[in-house]
User: Fold these one by one.
Assistant:
Number 1:
Amino acid sequence: MKFKASQIAEILEGTIVGNPDAEVSELAKIEEGKDGSLTFLSNPKYTSYIYSTKASITIVNDSFEADQTVSTTLIKVKDAYKAFSTLLEYYNQVKLRKSGIEQPSYISATAKYGEDVYLGAFTYLGENVKIGKNVKIYPYAYVGDNTVIGDNSTLFAGVKVYSETVIGKNVTLHGGAIVGADGFGFSPNEKGEYTKVPQIGNVIIEDDVDVGAGTTIDRATLGSTIIRKGVKLDNHIQIAHNVEIGDNTVIAAQTGVAGSTKIGKNCIIGGQVGIVGHITIGDRVKIQAQSGIGRNVKDDEVLQGSPAIGYSDYNKSFIHFKNLPKTVDLLHQLDKKVNKNG
């Protein structure tokens, strides 16, 4: 796809300084720009590159004034970084604009879907599936019986959505995500053998949720596992049965949340965090990477460590931990002096 400077300026409501017919077909960092590429300058530390970049078009802030000759066509905007992000989003939408039903694919006779859907090759839609408008389901995706998917949602290649799942509008499930698999429910008997407890609940994913590649969200034993509006889940996260995650909470990769735990709104949870089951985490909580959470957490707490303690307490304790060998040596020296004098 090629775009002219005039088209880009119209999208960004910017002003062109240079050639309005300059064309670009790819994006690049300013220091790596080449003919036919588009870049941007927002950080002053990279200003020197604007005089040497080979990029055909560069987006800059309105305040930028060149003190040397530039060969790149400039598009001046209020906020270059934000404008470039807007352009990336627009480019992505154009790139992913697909429609139609590819073959081979299987669509149950009872499945229903809205206008402008895209179903990639080898997709499967089960009984009574309901899919909204402008939904994109990429090749090798599976959508189980009685599942509902809202408008403008996207399931990338290899996504598996088990039966009875409810997915809202503007949801993205990245490749390999699995939604609705059985929760880890087993009951031991007197012989120490484990019997599977049927998992007959479902998963509900509300609007504007993003689920990363390889992430798994288990169905509830009874009731629902719920991912609230605006939640963002990174790659390779495990969400167990009957978990509830509040609005706009973000969780980084390799975190695991055990069954029936409730996480509040607007929380930020780092990578490789382990959270035990049957606890409640309040709103606006921040948990540093590799922490272990084994207790209820109040609103606005900031935690680190395993088991996690208050963030500032952890940092103070870590200073003492680093000095522990010196402290031990000092204690040995004092002990020798006491014994000698004694």
Note: The two ends are 87 Å apart (CA to CA).
Number 2:
Amino acid sequence: MILRAPTPEELPGLSDMCLRSQASWGYDGKMLNTFRQDLTLKPEELETDALMVAEDKRGVAGMVQLSMNTDTLAQVKKLYVAPNRLGEGTGKMMYVWACRTAQENGAEDLLIVSDPQAAGFYEHMGAVLIEKTEPSPIPGRTLPCLIHKLRAQA
């Protein structure tokens, strides 16, 4: 398995993979349509964020998007594994990459706003639940907000 930067031409297929991965949690079509805009990768994100594709000889297994929110805070904006590739260690590999890349760019903390069903993965990887947040466009839906400390506290 390798990690590599995606090409602009791959963004529609990667966005579709993110939506299929989200669908694997059992969301209905209406909810998935609500998620579609947030899960669509935009060409300008190739310039502003760090994106990586996990791939092997069988094809794309997942993707991760990391953003530096401030000089000391990075955020995992997307981390999705293709549904047929779950359980192979792809998510862990991409998460470790995100932590290392954030550290290399000066981040002390890694923020994750997670789907409720994926929060356990992030906790297993060392992130700690800090609060629930209520993002739009889905009124009344709360998402776990987690922090992974990247630097030891003095």
Note: Helices lie at 11-23, 29-39, 45-48, 90-104, 119-124.
Number 3:
Amino acid sequence: MVNSKDKEPRTKKKSRSKDAEGRMSLKAHLIEARNRLFKSLIALVIGTVAGFFLYDELLALLIEPVRAAGGSITYTSVMSPFDIMLKVAIFVGVVASSPVWIYQIWAFIIPGLKKKERRLSYSFAAVAVPLFLFGIAMAYFVLPFALQFFVSLAAANSETLFTIDTYLPFIFRLLLAFGLAMLVPVLMVGLNMVGVLSSKLILKNWRITVFIIALVAAMAAPGGDAITMFALAGPLFLTFAAATLFCYINDKKRAKKQAEQDAANENMAAGSASSIDTPSTEV
């Protein structure tokens, strides 16, 4: 005979993670956040170590737009080379570990996924990572135009010097800002697929979104360089419009499916009620 007391510890252990409605407690959320942050940090460390081996090639790639614009890079202190090497390695780590931390962020926002929604999470990460890298590549592509504009403002017969301590942080902020901006449309689609964000809400606040995109593009391409700003803002507008259209179509399909399900339930309920109300003819 199985002792009923042996089952109690298992039941209590299971109830600690979620309540009767399937919601996680604050402690469980904090534990999950810690675990996902730990996994992201491990991936970041591995990517940073790889960044030290790619330092020379990547630094030459980052300095090339300055040389193409007619400027030159200078170091400001004895420790600057090591400091720059560390910053470049961390930047490589952030980019290289993007598949891990992008998925961990999404999985934390939408916890307790079912099998179908878990496949959606993998698809989200598979689409988000290329878009993140595309945003970085797009910012790097328009960088020479911005540098050329600033160098053109210098006085004649003068030499333009960029201190590497200020140049590289500016470049990293620019690249990461547009890489992260390209994740917003994917996040919109993902939240819509799980029923959190509706296309009606997106369309209601489209003016605010357009203003934010234009503001980010203007801040990332300062100095009044309209060509650079439009080159950066254009893909963001296109991806936002595509994400909004996808959410609208998906909401239409979801509403149609729900209407068909409600009609089927009503017909089933009406059939059950009619069978109960019909008097029996048997003797």
Note: Residues 226-277 form the longest helix (52 residues).
Number 4:
Amino acid sequence: MLKDKVAMVTGAAQGIGFAISEEFAKQGADVVLADYNPKVTDVAKTLAGKYDGKIVGLVMNVMDNDSIQAGLDQIMADFGHLDYVMNNAGGGTLKPFAELTDKDFDSTIDLDLRGTFRCMRAEIKLFLKQGFGSIVNTGALGSIYNPGGMGAYNAAKNGIMGMTQAAAVDYAADNIRVNCVAPGLTKTPLNDGGFLEKILPTVPMKRYETAAEVAKVFVFVASEATFMTGQTILSDGGVSVGLK
């Protein structure tokens, strides 16, 4: 149980971010659901009525340094400490490489890669002051074993894995762990539209991953894997070891 622990999850208004938030709540943690979408406050209320910990929504934009800092300041004012951070906010344009525009590429990099960078930088500064902390970034299986059409997204997610390794080494001696989880074929509101159905035959387990399943991996890496840092953990139904 994670009673008296505090977790923040970005991109928490839906999908994997919401599922991670609920898993932390199930395990007794206090949870801050952060998202640029104001509906996150109502989403948080749906969890607050089901679990014992303090669960709140926070409107925060990972593309804005001031918004990130204000959010972290608010968490510290309300809770006094922050144990776990899940940098999950993201998205991107999926097109064949030569069809990507500068705007497609830049917007994907700014949200996924720079957004994670901005959050990590502020979170690490906070963790250095309090003397501990665990960060888990959201990667993507598709950036390692990709089905095509993911040039900008792959660039961002591979960058996140690289930043995870760099920060892990820089702050391992400061009681700060930094890891990454790369979900497999997970059905969420962001990837509806037939994409998953085309990729499903490549999954040895022959099914989708649920958001609730991968959420357990995030919470384990954040809270239980206390000698793990700098790693990217694949939760992929066997894709990375199967030949299809």
Note: The longest helix spans residues 102-130.
